[in-house]
Amino acid sequence: MEDVDSQDIAQETPAKDVFVAPSINEKAILAGASYTYHSPVPATISQDLSVECVLGVDEAGRGPVLGPMVYGLLYLPLSKHRSLLAETHHFDDSKALTPAVRSSLMQGLCTPHMDLYKSCGWATRVMSARDISSGMLKPAGTYNLNAQAMDATIDLIKDVFAKGINVREIYIDTIGSPQIYQKKLERIFPTTAITVAKKADSLYPCVSAASVCAKVTRDAALEVCYQTYASHATDKGEPKASAEGWGSGYPSDARCTTWLKGHMNPIFGWGSECRFSWGTAKDLFEAKGSGVKVEWPMDDDEQDMRVTDFFTAGREGEENDESNALSTWFGRPVTEAVF
Hints:
By secondary structure, the chain is α/β, with parallel strands linked by helices. It is 38% helix and 12% strand. The chain has 13 helices and six strands. The chain has helices spanning 6-12, 26-30, 43-46, 81-88, 99-110, 115-119, 129-136, 145-162, 178-188, 200-203, 205-235, 254-262, 279-286, and strands at residues 35-38, 52-60, 69-77, 121-127, 166-173, 193-197. The protein has a six-stranded mixed beta sheet with strand order 1-4-3-2-5-6. Strand 5 (166-173), helix 9 and strand 6 form a beta-alpha-beta unit. The longest helix is centred in the middle third of the chain and has 31 residues, at 205-235. It is globular and about 75 Å long.
């Protein structure tokens, strides 16, 4: 779906010791299920819900063939937007931060005595590879990635409003055309000032912080996905590996494609960590000698048959007719002539 250069691949590769935030639900991740997590409402807001807040949304993992796509949301008092996030903690686009810095910032959001914890609320929507693929591969009416992403964004924002948070400004990194996306959101949230922009994660600190929430959650989720393979390796006496074994998960990452080729089941392909709707997965499946082709034959002679055809009464002497089998199963009705 998306090509990234070597620098981006290095930044997108999961860290060896990524911080495991409360947004990680191992059971759901291993089951291939999507889920949402919301942090507690911070004290500075819960004690006075009239406080005007700013909210940012961004995603991580849109392009990879492996792992979930994660949407992150963060809100805080409008008065602390730039002073706390940009000036004090130097939040930036998650791809511009090292894995260690991202983990440190995320840990600050999750540690009770920290100023970030006291002022910021955050949420994530983990969209599993399985659910993304099932939406995109629907036989009737494709649920494309943009539509799935937009729905995830809208649901996260609605959840925050439902908590009574006084959100006055919303900033979002765009999906497709910023103007079209912004107009749709303005119809849904008419009382809030909304800005949808390209590179919003570099322009607005709340979006930068949301991108960190999304990226650190995705990195930890990838590590959870990899546990199945790492545990299998340990059972065989091999050293346990981190999710670095499959690299960044992007199709353009040689480590990713090498891992996919080496771990493909000829019938089932891969586990719930793989997006089967991606061209990379499809190509590997359809490559000569790689996957087993399954055909589901249909009997053309029976395609036009109706259920009532099995119950049509036959003529005398046709009791053994195959088409009359059901109608004679319990015998024929007794006529007056018998008596």
